Structure formats: structure tokens, C-alpha cells
Amino acid sequence: MVKFEALLGQLSVKLADTSISVSQSSGSPCQMRGVLMLVGRDLLGPGDAKTAWELLGYEVGIQQFKITFDAPVYHYRTSSTDRPTLDQPPKDQKGTLEMIKFQPRQWTQAGQIAVGFSIVIPEDLLPPRGMTYRYQLAASVTVAVINKDLGMGPNFMHRIAAPVSFEVTCPTSSAGWPWPQQHGLN
Q1: For the structural domain made of 4-170, what CATH number should be given?
Q2: Could you give the 3-state DSSP secondary structure of residue 165?
Q3: For the chain, which ranges sit under pLDDT 70?
């Protein structure tokens, strides 16, 4: 008999880039893309974990994927779920829902449950010219697993990913103006 806890492996956060250079003169926000990856262990040896789970009667539901985004001056938290309910309004800070967007979950060829996300960093969270800010992302997931055939579950499991960091740099000079900006009069 397979124990529920053995069905899931680690949670990890994968970022498209770990260093971005942005121009504040463009007026457009900075965007960071990534994926939350949860390992779904294959129960029948090498092959497709999703098919193995379904053949054995297991079903997985993401109760909540949580992302915490730390900027040098702000701290944002938001979450996503497989089946949002109207009776549970988000407890997120104002503006966070527009800042962090989740995509529907998918099974990868490697047997991982993947949830893509994008973070739009507004201009007021970007570093001043000539500076670099380090941002940090932390993620956690709560998953419910049931076995329809055996009438077992739901069993709730929680996984936490190691935090990942990325940097955003705002160059000293603007496009078309190769010299550093002068602040103040002589």
C-alpha cells in the first residue's frame, strides 16, 4: 500500500532570469516569469507519473499555492488554487493580485506538477538609477490527495520551497544619453 506522503516530492521555484536590467525612462514595468514545480512521484517505476496516479485511483488537488515576494521596501503575499471559491475572498494586500498572476497547473513530461507565474514589478518598486535591488521569492503549497477507488483521503500535505533571489538593476544612463544624470546645480 502506498502512503500518501510518498506521493509527493519537493517543491521548487524556477525563474526565467536571475538578473534583469531595466530602464525607468521607458515607463513600462519590469516583468519576471517563473514556475512552481512540485514533484509527483511515479508509483510504477519509470514513466508518466500522472498516468500512474490515475491508474491507481489517486487524484491530486492543489488547495493553495502561496508566493511571498520581498522587495527592499515592500512585502507581498498572494496565492492560487485549483478551484477558487467565492466564499473565501483573497486576504492579499491591495494591488498584489495585479502584481502576481498564476497560470493553470499542468503535468510536465518529467512527472512534475507545474504552475507558471509572472510578477510585474511596478515602477515604484524598481531601484533608483545606478542601483541594484535584490528581490526574494518564497513559495509553499498545500495539496489534497485522495484515492477514489479505495475511498481514502483527502490527505493534506504541505511543501515549502527554498527561497530564490533575483536582481534588478537600473542603469545610470538613459538610452541616447551616455553620461550619468546630474542631480542638483553647481
Answers
A1: 2.60.40.1930
A2: strand
A3: 1-6, 24-28, 41-50, 73, 81-98, 173-186
